[in-house]
Amino acid sequence: MRWGILGAGSIAGSFAAAVNGFTRAQLVAVGSRNRDRAERFATAHGIPTTHVGYRDLVEDPQVDAVYVATPHSEHREQALLAIGAGKHVLVEKAFTRNTAEAEEIFAAARAAGVFVMEAMWTRFLPHVAALRRVIAGGEIGEIVNVSADNGHSFGFDPTGRLWDPALAGGALLDLGVYPISFAHDLLGVPDAVHAVGQLTTTGVDGQVSVVLSYGERAQATLSTTLWARTPTRAHISGTEGSIQVDGPFYAPSSFTVTRNDGGRWTFEQPVARGLQYEAAELARCVAAGRTESERMTWDGTLDVLRTMDEVRRQVGLVYPGE
After folding, report:
1. Any alpha helices (H) in the chain, and if so which ranges?
2. Count of C-beta atoms within a 10 Å radius of residue 191
3. In the structure, what pLDDT confidence band is assigned to residue 257 with cuts at 50, 70 and 90?
4. CA separation for the pair 162, 154 (Å, rounded)
5. pLDDT at 79
6. How would residue 29 be classed by pLDDT, with cut points 50, 70 and 90?
7. N or C: which end of the chain has fewer CB within 10 A?
8. What single string gives the DSSP state of each residue in 215-227?
9. CB 116 within 8 A of CB 292
10. How far apart are CA 213 and CA 215, in angstroms?
11. With the CA atoms of 306, 307, 313 and 319 taken in that order, what torsion angle do they form, in degrees rounded to the nearest 10?
12. Residues labelled catalytic
């Protein structure tokens, strides 16, 4: 797989390092609106071709797949640009600002016959695969509660991406997508969504707490904030035991199973980086002729976005142009 990287920020750098270090894929091109930034990125990651702007990147005949690593506000336009050039696309989470934008991307991908996936790397990590096997095997019984948090302390910068409504900033799309996607992965689509939150002076969400309800007794209790560093752990409570996932739960991690009968054991599998797993998933799916991943389906992305749309409605967050 020959990758073109659209955007040259920090997450793009992490992806480039993971692909270079742990896959057989090639990084063949990078595109940025800033020539110096693109050239520095290319030098740092051994990428032979740089493009100023994004159209030249997606139209580069060397490129098989495009990784979109720009702010959420740009994902729709840039994913459609890559699809229009016939390229497979991996779009950084959150996939888009809202459900309608994602539906447009998936419709275009379906018409073009190309692969598209949200880059929710957590879905592909070894510890998540292992804990899903534990749950499926009935070791902790029926899930009653999933709790997860993702908070980081960012210095206030009214011109920064995280604080800018025009760039779809805020805690939810950048950080809260992880606990929400994790709950969806384990429990599915909720029956009800309850959210409270506070907005920053710039008009994005600074902190949000969410309760998702499932059936008669299962719940997910989730939180995210830009204002404080939280434990970033996850806990899965069942009728026969529980699983404690060490923080950060959404990155390569370990977990401990504690059963009601006194049994206790820990899963540990050290993993460097982690973004290589989503890159490998794209390569496998493309080789198999598939246009979507069975692990991170288009419907799965849409379900998470519908939940986040409802959370934003309840906390009063609307982005410019919506």
Report:
1. 10-22, 35-45, 55-58, 75-84, 99-112, 126-136, 171, 177-187, 276-287, 298-315
2. 11
3. very high
4. 9
5. 98
6. very high
7. C
8. TTTEEEEEEEESB
9. yes
10. 7
11. -60
12. 93
Order the strands of the 192-199 sheet from edge to edge: 192-199, 205-214, 218-225, 143-151, 234-238, 241-245, 255-259, 264-267
Amino acid occupying residue 31: G
Asked if 285 contacts 24 with a C-beta cutoff of 8 angstroms, the reply is no
Q: How confident is the model at residue 104 (pLDDT cuts 50, 70, 90)?
A: very high
Q: Which of 95, 124, 123, 89 is nearest to 108 (CA)?
A: 89
Would the pTM of this model clear 0.85, i.e. be above it?
yes
Q: CA Rg, the chain, in Å? A: 19
Of 120, 124, 125, the residue nearest 253 (C-alpha): 125
Cα–Cα distance between 151 and 47 in angstroms, integer?
A: 33
Domains and CATH numbers, the chain: 2-120 (3.40.50.720), 123-275+304-315 (3.30.360.10)
CA 170 from centre of chain: 15
Paired tokens of 116: 């598209």
- In sequence order, what are the beta bridge partners of 264? 258
The HSE-up count of residue 116 (CA atoms within 13 Å, CB side) is: 33
Average pLDDT estimate for 1-30: 97
**311 pLDDT tier (thresholds 50, 70, 90):** very high
**What is the C-alpha to C-alpha distance for residues 250 and 258, in angstroms, rounded to an integer?**
20
